[in-house]
Design goal:
Layout: H1 10-19, E1 24-28, H2 29-37, E2 42-47, E3 50-51, E4 53-58, E5 73-76, H3 82-94, E6 102-105, H4 108-116, E7 122-126, H5 129-136, E8 139-144, E9 155-160, H6 161-166, H7 168-185, H8 189-202, H9 208-216, E10 222-223, H10 231-244, H11 253-256, H12 260-265
Parallel strand pairs: 5-6, 5-7
Antiparallel strand pairs: 1-9, 2-9, 3-10, 4-7, 4-8
Helix pairs in contact: 3-10, 4-5, 5-9, 8-9
Length: 281
């Protein structure tokens, strides 16, 4: 039986994976790559979503481009995050240096309050925090990550190698389920409305209106297809990690990604589900 478990942060997920208390998890791609390079027996088998991260400033901030954030304080969720890497990528585009901005690590749940209280000038985070700042009336998206990083990805599904070796069918069931959910979510607004209502009330304990904003404003703010791990995408993440100092040695795609399950999921179709049904088929 697959039993989901909620964690408050990526460090706790990391420790649970290392100790074997959990066998699979969603985590940010750079952390997964770093753990594998350190010898932790995990593999990336699928993506969680594409896009869905943004740099947000206060609504009254006059900044109109990233260059305007020079000498400002920007919160990131972790030094092992794509949200940190997007800052390095954009700095390179503008000819800026890491010393030109002040990055502070902050728990995602705290960033919107810190922005509203003027404790930080901006944050680089995944959803639903950009949406929360917008809905609260005090935040403004300076840019979406996809504007500077085509095919941007953040969360990935990692699985311990012992589960892959001993129970590959279970891993395939997980990947198939995520693939079918992604196809269902990307089928149109009504499905996203249903997902925001159900997940907001029963899983995240958040206002469904917030999740609806993140899923529909616009509809491709976060996308759930394609979720196959592609080498070119991960090579970019790895190279940015090396450049920004969070990876001390290069690691090749086939050392931390196991593509067999994504290949198996390509034949899957979207779930058949409507609001009020007891099950999805």
């Amino acid at each position: 039986m697959l039993l989901p478990r909620k964690f408050q942060g990526f460090p706790e997920i990391k420790e649970a994976l290392i100790s074997g208390r959990i066998q699979a998890a969603f985590m940010v791609a750079p952390m997964a790559i770093a753990l594998r390079s350190q010898g932790v027996p995990i593999r990336i088998v699928y993506l969680g979503h594409r896009y869905g991260s943004a740099v947000v400033v206060r609504k009254d901030n006059p900044a109109r481009s990233f260059r305007d954030l020079k000498n400002k304080t920007i919160a990131i969720p972790s030094r092992f995050s794509d949200e940190r890497l997007i800052l390095f990528k954009v700095m390179k585009e503008y000819g800026m240096k890491p010393a030109d901005i002040r990055m502070v690590e902050m728990a995602p749940a705290d960033v919107t309050g810190a922005l509203a209280a003027h404790a930080i000038d901006a944050f680089s985070m995944g959803e639903p925090h950009p949406s929360q700042a917008e809905m609260g009336g005090f935040g403004r998206v300076l840019f979406q990550a996809r504007e500077h990083w085509p095919d941007y990805m953040s969360c990935v599904l990692v699985v311990r190698q012992d589960l892959i070796t001993e129970h590959p069918a279970i891993v395939q069931v997980m990947v198939d389920g995520i693939a079918r959910s992604g196809l269902w979510l990307d089928a149109g607004r009504p499905h996203r409305e249903q997902a925001a209502d159900f997940v907001g009330r029963y899983y995240y304990n958040q206002d469904p209106k917030l999740l609806l904003w993140a899923l529909t404003n616009p509809l491709d703010r976060v996308t759930y297809t394609p979720l196959t791990p592609f080498k070119k995408d991960f090579d970019l993440v790895r190279d940015l990690m090396l450049e920004s100092g969070v990876l001390d040695q290069s690691i090749e795609f086939n050392q931390y990604v196991d593509p067999q399950f994504a290949e198996g999921a390509k034949i899957k179709t979207a779930w058949k589900y409507e609001a009020g049904d007891a099950t999805a088929q």
